[in-house]
Specification:
By secondary structure, the chain is of the alpha/beta class. The protein contains 15 helices and 18 strands. Strand 1, helix 1 and strand 2 form a beta-alpha-beta unit. Helix 8 packs parallel to helix 9, helix 9 runs parallel beside helix 11 and helix 12 runs parallel beside helix 13. The longest helix is centred in the last third of the chain and has 23 residues. The radius of gyration is 23 Å and the shape is globular.
């Protein structure tokens, strides 16, 4: 097949880690001579990067694969690849259910995509789900943005939350060295990127697997030290990180975020439940009191910080009283955003086997009630932006209004305002907020207001 006829399409389900993996795999494919196809039906390589956190995500994957498998019968040279967490979890079961697949590969094998596709080209049906040590990938990712970029700092997860399949599908924690992370950021700065989000399934665990200890007895490398180490990278004007775990979130990290001007005042710290017995059953390793102290400590030095979280309702055995403690925690903290989900039993997790599962009706009712509260709290938090001047990093055009551009505040609030994307992309613009909504803002650039007053 000639290089000019090699076209690929990637469909990504799931979290930021999956999106970052997809960018890396797209970089591998383009390095091999493939070109991106917006329409999957025009591509001769289809890659589905999957998520297994929720049961409905798996159903979407199988539905998508079913359509592509039918297409392969009419187009035998079509290459079908499934990557990500469903691939790792299902393994050869996936090959039996969808025998048209050419390659099934777990998240740890993203950097090996070219080698695996070469095996496919030789006529093999390939299964790559065995645990491996992740090696540095010299292929540049195909970034979905020219302004903001993901940078993985730690792969895998050593936590054993009883509801979560991630450690089974993403492997053990493997931290990248600070020097390699900084080098990637330096290149991003040279390419014109303005914002970097440091990524890890449990980013606060960064460095625990790297050698060395300090005279104080701490690990030689941790997230706080990494932020100091990469903070002065030329060209990078904003730094974020996700996802944090309350078990490891320290006051030293909070102080670093306060002191380092490039680190944005936005924290994503899942709490999962407001009841200590449920947290213990989840094996989360902290109490709701400790979680509240973390939020109090953040707001003591950064009162305006944006705080978002994840929560699960309907965990096995959860009583109405325990659910109401979660409800109360959300109400009292007033998060900027809470990602909510009803508990979904996942394969090979302890909680899936317990006999105290709640009915779907109870879970749906609790989720609906909590979602209403989340919307109310988000609207209350948004009110503080009214008539304020915010610095907005312009990322793209508003897809619903071509006269507007869109970007995010330091607190990660999506903001729209009039402007031309070809003139403003990648710039940080001072914007006066004139309209607030629960999860987004509308404003006017100060330059336009000044012109109007003259």
């Amino acid at each position: 097949m000639s290089s000019d006829s090699r076209r690929y399409h990637i469909t990504t389900y799931g979290c930021q880690m999956n999106k970052a993996d997809s960018e890396r795999m797209a970089g591998v494919l383009e390095n091999m001579g493939y070109q991106w196809s917006e329409n999957p039906d025009d591509a001769n390589l289809i890659l589905c990067n999957t998520c297994t956190i929720r049961d409905n995500a798996e159903h979407k994957v199988y539905s998508y694969l079913g359509r592509q498998a039918k297409r392969k019968h009419a187009q035998p040279d079509l290459t079908l690849v499934v990557a990500g967490c469903v691939a790792q979890q299902e393994g050869d079961t996936l090959l039996r259910r969808v025998p048209e697949l050419d390659l099934v590969m777990g998240p740890q094998h993203a950097n090996r995509l070219q080698d695996l596709l070469e095996q496919v080209a030789s006529g093999q049906q390939v299964l790559a789900t065995e645990p491996i040590h992740i090696v540095e990938d010299i292929t540049k990712p195909r970034r979905d943005s020219t302004v903001t970029a993901w940078v993985n700092v730690i792969y895998g997860c050593n936590e054993r939350c009883t509801y979560c399949v991630v450690p089974n599908v993403r492997g053990i924690e493997q931290s990248r060295t600070p020097e390699v992370i900084r080098a990637e950021m330096v290149q991003l700065g040279k390419q014109g990127f303005k914002e970097v989000t440091l990524l890890g399934q449990n980013i606060d665990a960064y460095g625990r697997d790297l050698p060395g200890t300090t005279p104080e007895g701490r690990h030689q490398h941790n997230l706080t030290d990494l932020l100091h180490f990469v903070h002065d990278v030329p060209g990078i004007e904003r730094i974020r990180f996700a996802t944090s775990h309350p078990r490891y979130f320290t006051e030293r990290l909070i102080q670093a975020c306060y002191e380092l001007p490039k680190v944005c005042e936005h924290f994503h710290i899942p709490f999962q439940s407001g009841d200590n017995d449920i947290l213990k059953a989840m094996s989360r390793g902290y109490t709701q009191e400790k979680y509240r102290r973390i939020i109090d400590n953040i707001r003591a030095v950064m009162p305006d910080a944006s705080i978002s979280a994840d929560v699960i309702v309907g965990f096995p055995g959860e009583t109405e009283e325990q659910f109401l403690k979660t409800f109360q925690l959300v109400e009292e903290i007033e998060f900027d955003l809470v990602n909510t989900a009803a508990y979904s039993p996942r394969p090979n997790t302890p909680a899936a086997l317990w006999d105290n599962q709640l009915s779907e009706e109870v879970k749906a009712d609790r989720l609906q009630r909590l979602n209403r509260l989340v919307g109310v709290c988000a609207e209350l938090r948004s009110q503080r932006y009214a008539n304020r001047i915010e610095e907005v990093l312009v990322e793209d055009q508003n897809p619903k209004d071509p006269t507007q551009v869109m970007g995010r505040t330091r607190g990660n609030r999506l903001t729209f305002f009039p402007g031309k994307i070809e003139e403003l992309r990648g710039q940080i613009i001072s914007v006066k907020v004139i309209e607030v909504r629960p999860f987004s803002l509308t404003g006017e650039p100060l330059s336009a207001l000044a012109t109007a007053s003259n």
